[in-house]
Write the structure tokens for this entry.
Amino acid sequence: MRQRASLGVIFLVVFVDLLGFGIVVPQLGIYVDKYQGSAFVVGLLLSSYSLMQFLIAPRLGRLSDRIGRKPVLLYSLAGLVVANLMFAFADSLFMLFVSRLLAGAAAANIATAQAYVADITTEENRTQGMAMIGAAFGLGFVLGPALGGFLGGFGGNFAIGLASAFFSAASFLLALFFLAEVPEAQRKKTPRKGNGWLWFKMPGFGLALLLSVLYMSAFTQMEATFAVFVLQKFVVPDVAIEGGLFRMHAHADAQVHQQASTLVGWLFAAIGVVSAFVQGFAIRHFRKHFSEKSLVVLGAALVALSLALFVVPAQFAWMFAPVVILALGTALYNPSLSALVSRLAPKENYGEALGTYQSMGALGRILGPILGGFLYTRFSPSATYFVAAGMVFLVCLGALLLPRLKSN
């Protein structure tokens, strides 16, 4: 019963992380424009968040191996409160950047949350535990942008920042009073010392890290270009993309942008709902019949198929078909690979290992938007999604080389 309560708190911690991320991100372009920044600055602002996760996640995970999971989670949640308050009172691009850098560093606690789940779950229910974190991702992904749009229209970055700070503070209090620390004997407080690059030399683990970078680079190509794709294909088919940045033709006014945002919102809501359902309820049934390795391969295959199908629909309603396939694939792939990674890592190094794994995902989130934007502007939407599909297909093939671990 105590374990279930702790898992519930971890769910809320991750949910708040993603809710805060989702509330802020759709509005960043508005505030960058408010402070006379360019579209390139928006990209830098997004990348700065992932850059801090890339740099901090392994270190935060290693620290949690040494001093415990709960203190690290508490410190990081306190950092999120401060970062969100800074966003609320930001009155310059400099303040926006500082708030996002701090938020990215604090949100690197997701790896520590995964390590906590790995500590308190058995190998038989590890995938289900990691899927719970994925479900929190999905719900935050759905509710965050919708709430951010409402709050942004009501009170701008002040309202958004205060709401995010409130959620982070509530999560801090829940963790402080209801999250049980993992016993020292269970967690082990004798992590080995080593260079982060040593993880790439570990059989199976290094391959999983490379797959994480490749997969996330492909997935974020879609995320970075999807709004423009929907606008160009379904809202204003003759919209032009000029130069090296996404710049709309003169007739793509605010009303057109709002319509495109609404359509994109529905599609991403579908991704979040399906993903949260599969990871919250259905993954346990898949796990009874398939190994983590098999689910990684199947999930990657479904994602590759969905990305290739993105360019096919001629009507917006048909976009829900590849989107649902994408959601199912990600719901199988992400928790299964996380569970496999945790089982490949030494128990005394769960935090550092999963931190390194999350760091590689953050690296993919830095590289993917750059590649996607280049392919979209220099070639075509088809090039973007076919290349992304090809990259995920390579992930599928690479996953066949992962070890198949048996439960004890």
